[in-house]
Q: What sequence folds into this?
């Protein structure tokens, strides 16, 4: 329908739209729920949301690209959120970022070729006293050093290889 | 509800309705507060920060678009803080704005001919309009189009795709085409002012000034020492490049406007500067540079040694100078090329160019060098005359010092240095020294001169040391240059002469312009479409006579060539609010430049062409599309510095959602949106 | 006996969840109850396990590791408290809590945040009851006025004034909004309150809603706080069940509904008009003021927005009276303020103190001074809108006016301590990097201006600073401050201005001498090996990616600085601390 490369199962959205009408969810909530379903926001999903929420596609795209939480591209199985807040900065977040980038051979915002890891730096995870901190999916890792970081990544990779 | 309130803006007591914003209140009372993102029909947005004003008692600046006017308010729209904030806003915007207000062609033309405009008119097949455009600046388009070394093409951006537009030839084509049809495009002349101007010299400068001044209603008389008008165009440029019939026609057009032209009148002999000064209300000295420079080489006084322009003048007067079978021309400029090719046409069997550097350093135009080579001229690079050897007072040979290029200097230029002890002897019947030209100060002794002997003229106003006497062109300051430079100076001088005659002064401010910096990926989007070759006579044919070598474009070719133009100059220049304010508030619009926001061009909205490089994110198009046109096609995408505006819709027919109202383009304060249909 | 494990986000990140699981398994079939609490704020001691006898705290075990749990469990079963001694909090560290005065954080870390009964049995919702049954909305506002409570989100605007404006605004449909979009990098007290004592927020909001006459309220929580959202939602559900929320609350005519809206990642949404746009499901771009939210806010209806910490104080004030609150603090700043003390500090965590203490008291007396006994250099207050305060001003008292005078601000309470190894130019660059990325892009001054400042700061830290750059920065700061549309832009220059004000010499060293005095800016570093310390282990030479290090085994090595790319790997691998930065 949208003519784009993606071909998402739009029926998964039915419940989201039902909820929306029930709760008076705004566009952001709808997008959040859609992202929870698909892992990211495929273009056809955005168009579907535009139609069902009565917003223009331009507006939906505007909202989806304004907030850092929304992703228009697929992310890796493990999403690394690296905190770059003040406390983490003071305690060496830059060296952690360097270690991750070197270990995974990706830059901020990228996904590894094997689709295992994505890296995203974030403003602050609010775990300042454990700085530097990163989150990998639901798990938080604090008091990082470059060596410790690499160890964590290798451990996950090792686990996945099995 | 709408009570009348009183407030003071810029010291003026005004009334407004309660509920009015400060901006509206000011506007109602004829006070303009600058703004870039405001439109009366929509609610204020607050992005541009241009409308900030100072309010008494408020430590912060107020945005006049949204702050309500209140009874008793004292507003200053011109306070230092407000002006500073606006200046910073504009400098920030300009430093992130990628666009050319004026195309590089026009900017690089000394006379700022509106190349883009007439090229577009040619592309539209409207040759008369094109000539009209050209004649705003150049009174002799057919002639200049043939001879101009075209700095416009040097700057042309199309060369980054493949080759520059053939701007000069297009100009000649349009002019020829109109003349061929017996049409004469002539400007209106104003009512006679009763004032008169005497112009000394009937070359490109003198004729251009005459053309400009006569339009202003002044009487104009040109005094020229040669038998006919045209100056260097006639006596310095060979017939095979510029047929004199073409020049004659164009000079006649100027004469037909009422310019009086006196030939055979030599200053200091037939008339003096003060005679002319006394006869006229103002004088323009534009007598050119007619003396060949010496190269300070032993033997320069021998018979058979000619000055480059002296030789060309003699040839054009039909004097057939005696150059014999073997001749050599010293120099690497355009005059040297004209001289060697004229020598070929006069029947010399062996014609050489003696040039002390290599081809890469030659100042002559490439095409001229190529054509000379085609016509059999021998180029002796890295040689320099050490001595002209004579026999019985006549040239017999030249002893040439062999040169090599030295180490590059700071600018990367490699100067030639002699290879010690290495010489070549070249048998010659004559030698032509085309190593530059000078002005002749005879008759201008009253005027202050520069160290190099040229007439000292103010670079902006062209005034000389004598009130009412102006000077322009090759005879002034830095000396000889190209015709279009002389024209540019003459046009400017005419402006100041006119003002002088009216008794007014022209204040000067260099306009602030936006210029795009070039990046490698800027031209990848264009399809390659090579420049159309000017059809020419075959070298073996053309070297035998003085008939014009270029055959000219046909109309189809001209239009096709003109269509290659990238239209770099902004369509909105003249209406653009951004540049208007920048010109008002800034002096250096690139002071706060840095990385540019992501730009792109697209035509997704079929009727509107969008250039995101020029966008200042005022949001007017997005809001207009949503609030006024009720379409909501445009939207902001991304956040912060890299926010862009994009239309977003499915792959469905654009016409089914865009009402084609074009309102977005109408409200755009810059040239980011352009209506294309 | 009951043991309680502190399970706020950072406690969990430090391993509290695993400790919990292990302890549970070791304590199966014992009469020892296991419960959770939120965050007590002693982040440097996480995970924390408290042992209670009824309401009495018997022992506080800190930095409990998974491997300690078996031992602890055995000791607990045996009632052998002596064996627990080694896990117990030290007297020195206890000072951290003892020196605080807690109002907003009064129940944090002490009660189970996932149980409304825990809250009510500790006196929760009695303030709401008092307000609804014995006070008029005007009286509530008056009490808040007496308390002197000011907005804890950063601006410090009197709370009663906002409430009063919203109350007096025309219209029957009004909204109360809680700003929990705690975006300042370095501040996390709002998260702690929601995770640890969500009902305190709900109760404060309900009182506020009653005061202004709002039937609907929102909590706008940033998306990075999933646990906070879960606990708050649970609390809302329980409050609905118990009749503290919904129609006819506590049998009165007052009805109020509360909803969570999760933010989606945009710092600018902490700005109230941007927050409203975001609540409406739009791009979070600030609106022009006027109109202010009190007149036209959410859905163009009168709206009042307060921060989490502000609301967390409300119930206490109603319960104890405005005077009790205003008796604490200084002339112009009343009550207490929570700070998130982080950075190069010995004891980092949440600190709630009465206004009027000095920075030195907080950093040294409570925080224990600088970690690794390094030299204090500066403390950053107020995040990207705030500034860096130098050593000379450590005796500045904490109140709105005094902090503003330094060029910094109170802000939401981020307090990041820096030592001699922190480069102040790089610090300014860090904040401008942040604001550039977080700028919504609407107004020119912020969108392009912060970008330019960031570029200039970047070139300075990379050794490409030019003469006149400091002045250019100052000029830009001035222009952005006066021209930007919202608070984010207007305050974005503060980190630059304060670092220039107090650490100009560092800027000058970068620009003129191409040196980074703190040794932090990589481009301006030179690495060299201390011959005395080097043992010739060759580890650095092997690690060096560009073979810039040479030397024989067991002899001192040398770095060829012409080859060195300043990656710092040699320093990292050296076990003898022989690689030095100059």
A:
């Amino acid at each position: 329908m949208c003519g784009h490369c993606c071909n998402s199962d739009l029926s998964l959205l039915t419940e989201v739209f039902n909820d929306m009408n029930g709760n008076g969810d705004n566009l952001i909530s709808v997008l959040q729920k859609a992202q929870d379903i698909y892992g990211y926001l495929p273009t056809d999903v955005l168009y579907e949301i535009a139609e069902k929420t009565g917003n223009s596609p331009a507006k939906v795209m505007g909202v989806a690209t304004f907030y850092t939480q929304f992703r228009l591209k697929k992310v890796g199985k493990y999403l690394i959120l690296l905190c770059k807040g003040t406390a983490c900065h003071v305690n060496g977040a830059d060296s952690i970022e360097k270690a991750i980038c070197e270990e995974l051979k990706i830059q901020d915002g990228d996904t590894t070729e094997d689709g295992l890891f994505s890296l995203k730096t974030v403003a602050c995870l609010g775990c300042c006293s454990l700085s530097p901190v990163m989150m990998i999916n639901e798990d938080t890792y604090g008091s990082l050093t470059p060596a410790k970081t690499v160890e964590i990544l290798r451990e996950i990779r090792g686990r996945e290889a099995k | 509800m709408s009570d009348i309130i009183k407030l003071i803006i810029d010291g003026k007591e005004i009334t407004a309705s309660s509920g009015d914003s400060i901006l509206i209140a000011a506007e109602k009372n004829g006070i303009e507060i600058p703004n870039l993102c405001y439109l009366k029909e929509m609610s204020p947005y607050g992005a541009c920060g241009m409308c900030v004003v100072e309010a008494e008692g408020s430590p912060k600046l107020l945005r006049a678009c949204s702050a309500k006017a209140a009874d008793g308010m004292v507003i200053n729209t011109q306070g230092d803080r407000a002006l500073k904030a606006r200046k910073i806003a504009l400098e920030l915007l300009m430093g992130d704005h990628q666009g050319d207000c004026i195309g590089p062609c026009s900017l690089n033309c000394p006379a700022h001919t509106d190349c883009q405009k007439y090229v577009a008119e040619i592309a539209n097949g409207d040759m008369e309009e094109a000539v009209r455009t050209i004649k705003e600046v150049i009174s002799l388009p057919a002639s200049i189009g043939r001879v101009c070394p075209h700095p416009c093409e040097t700057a042309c951006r199309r060369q980054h795709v493949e080759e520059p537009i053939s701007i000069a030839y297009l100009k000649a084509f349009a002019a020829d085409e109109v003349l061929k049809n017996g049409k004469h495009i002539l400007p209106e002349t104003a009512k006679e002012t009763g004032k008169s101007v005497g112009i000394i010299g009937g070359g490109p400068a003198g004729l251009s000034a005459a053309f400009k001044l006569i339009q202003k209603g002044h009487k104009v008389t040109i005094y020229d020492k040669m038998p006919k008008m045209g100056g260097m165009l006639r006596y310095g440029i060979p017939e095979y490049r510029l047929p004199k019939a073409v020049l004659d026609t164009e000079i006649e057009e100027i004469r037909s406007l009422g310019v009086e032209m006196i030939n055979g009148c030599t200053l200091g002999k037939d008339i003096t500067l003060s005679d002319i000064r006394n006869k006229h209300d103002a004088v323009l000295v534009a007598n050119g540079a007619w003396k060949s420079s010496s190269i300070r080489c032993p033997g320069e006084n021998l018979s058979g040694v000619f000055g480059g322009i002296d030789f060309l003048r003699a040839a054009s007067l039909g004097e057939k100078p005696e150059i014999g079978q073997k001749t050599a021309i010293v120099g690497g400029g355009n005059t040297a090329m004209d001289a060697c090719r004229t020598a070929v046409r006069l029947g010399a069997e062996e014609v050489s160019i003696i040039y002390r550097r290599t081809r890469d350093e030659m100042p002559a135009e490439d095409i001229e060098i190529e054509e000379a080579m085609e016509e059999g001229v021998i180029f002796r690079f890295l040689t320099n005359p050490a001595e002209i050897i004579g026999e019985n007072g006549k040239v017999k040979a030249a002893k040439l010092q062999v040169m090599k290029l030295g180490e590059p200097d700071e600018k990367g230029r490699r100067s030639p240095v002699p290879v010690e002890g290495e010489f070549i002897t070249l048998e010659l019947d004559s030698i032509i020294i085309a190593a530059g030209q000078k002005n002749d100060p005879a008759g201008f002794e009253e005027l202050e001169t520069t160290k190099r002997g040229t007439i000292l003229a103010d670079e902006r106003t062209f005034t000389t040391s004598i009130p009412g006497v102006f000077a322009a062109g090759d005879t002034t300051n830095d000396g000889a240059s190209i015709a279009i430079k002389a024209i540019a100076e003459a046009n400017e001088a005419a402006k100041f002469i006119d003002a002088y005659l009216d008794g007014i002064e022209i204040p000067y401010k260099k306009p602030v312009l936006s210029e795009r910096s070039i990046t490698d990926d800027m031209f990848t989007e264009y399809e390659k479409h090579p420049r159309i070759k000017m059809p020419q006579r075959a070298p073996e044919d053309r070297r035998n006579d003085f008939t014009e070598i270029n055959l000219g474009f046909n109309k189809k070719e001209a239009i096709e060539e003109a269509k290659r133009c990238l239209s770099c100059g902004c369509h909105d220049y003249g209406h653009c609010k951004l540049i208007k304010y920048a010109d008002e508030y800034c002096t250096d619009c690139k002071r706060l430049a840095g990385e540019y926001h992501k730009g792109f061009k697209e035509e997704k909205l079929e009727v509107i062409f969008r250039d995101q490089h020029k966008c200042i994110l005022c949001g007017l198009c997005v809001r207009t599309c949503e609030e006024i046109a009720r379409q909501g096609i445009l939207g902001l995408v991304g956040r912060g510095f890299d926010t862009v505006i994009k239309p977003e819709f499915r792959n469905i027919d654009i016409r089914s959602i865009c009402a084609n109202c074009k309102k977005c383009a109408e409200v755009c304060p810059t040239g980011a949106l352009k209506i294309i249909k | 006996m009951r043991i309680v494990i502190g399970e706020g986000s950072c406690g969990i990140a430090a391993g509290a969840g695993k400790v919990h699981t292990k302890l549970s398994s070791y304590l199966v079939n014992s009469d020892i109850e296991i419960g959770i609490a939120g965050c007590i704020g002693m982040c440097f001691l996480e995970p924390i396990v408290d042992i209670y006898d009824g309401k009495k705290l018997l022992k506080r075990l800190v930095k409990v590791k998974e491997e300690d749990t078996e031992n602890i469990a055995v000791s607990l079963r045996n009632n052998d408290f002596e064996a627990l001694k080694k896990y117990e909090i030290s007297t020195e560290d206890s000072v951290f809590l003892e020196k605080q005065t807690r109002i907003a954080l009064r129940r944090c870390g002490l009660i189970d945040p996932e149980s409304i009964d825990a809250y009510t049995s500790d006196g929760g919702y009695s303030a709401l009851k008092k307000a609804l049954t014995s006070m008029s909305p005007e009286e509530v506002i008056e009490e808040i006025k007496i308390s002197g409570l000011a907005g804890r989100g950063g601006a410090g605007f009197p709370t009663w004034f906002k409430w009063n404006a919203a109350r007096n605004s025309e219209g029957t449909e009004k909204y109360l909004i809680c700003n929990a979009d705690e975006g300042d990098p370095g501040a996390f007290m709002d998260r702690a309150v929601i995770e640890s004592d969500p009902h305190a927020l709900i109760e404060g909001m309900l009182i506020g809603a009653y005061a202004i006459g709002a039937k609907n309220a929102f909590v706008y929580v940033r998306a990075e706080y999933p646990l906070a959202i879960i606990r708050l939602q649970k609390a809302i559900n329980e409050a609905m069940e118990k009749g503290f929320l919904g129609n006819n609350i506590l049998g009165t005519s007052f009805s109020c509904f509360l909803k969570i809206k999760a933010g989606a990642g945009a710092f600018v949404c902490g700005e109230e008009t941007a927050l409203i746009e975001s609540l409406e499901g739009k791009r979070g771009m600030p609106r022009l003021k006027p109109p202010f939210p009190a007149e036209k806010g959410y859905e163009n209806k009168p709206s009042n927005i307060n921060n989490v910490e502000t609301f967390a104080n409300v119930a206490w004030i109603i319960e104890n009276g405005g005077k009790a609150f205003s008796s604490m603090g200084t002339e112009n700043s009343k009550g207490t303020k929570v700070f998130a003390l982080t950075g190069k500090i010995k004891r980092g965590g949440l600190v709630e103190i009465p206004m009027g203490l000095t920075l030195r008291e907080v950093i040294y007396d409570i925080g224990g001074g600088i970690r690794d006994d390094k030299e204090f250099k500066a403390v950053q207050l107020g995040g990207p809108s705030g500034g860096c305060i130098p050593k000379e001003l450590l005796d500045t008292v904490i109140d709105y006016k005094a902090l503003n005078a330094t060029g910094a601000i109170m802000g939401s309470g981020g307090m990041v301590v820096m030592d001699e190894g922190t480069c102040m130019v790089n610090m300014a660059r860090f904040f401008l990097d942040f604001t550039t990325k977080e700028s919504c892009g609407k107004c020119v001054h912020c969108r392009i201006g912060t970008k330019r400042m960031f570029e200039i700061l970047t070139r300075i830290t990379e050794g490409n600073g030019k003469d006149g750059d400091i002045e250019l920065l100052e000029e830009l700061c001035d222009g952005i401050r006066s021209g930007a549309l919202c608070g984010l832009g207007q305050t974005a220059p503060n980190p630059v201005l304060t670092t220039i004000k107090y650490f100009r010499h560092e800027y000058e060293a970068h620009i003129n001498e191409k040196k980074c005095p703190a040794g932090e800016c990589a481009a301006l570093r030179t690495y060299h090996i201390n011959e005395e310390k080097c043992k010739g282990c060759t580890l650095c030479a092997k690690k060096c990616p560009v073979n810039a290090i040479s030397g024989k085994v067991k002899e001192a090595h040398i770095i060829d600085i012409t080859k060195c790319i300043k990656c710092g790997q040699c320093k990292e691998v050296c076990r003898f601390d022989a690689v030095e930065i100059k």
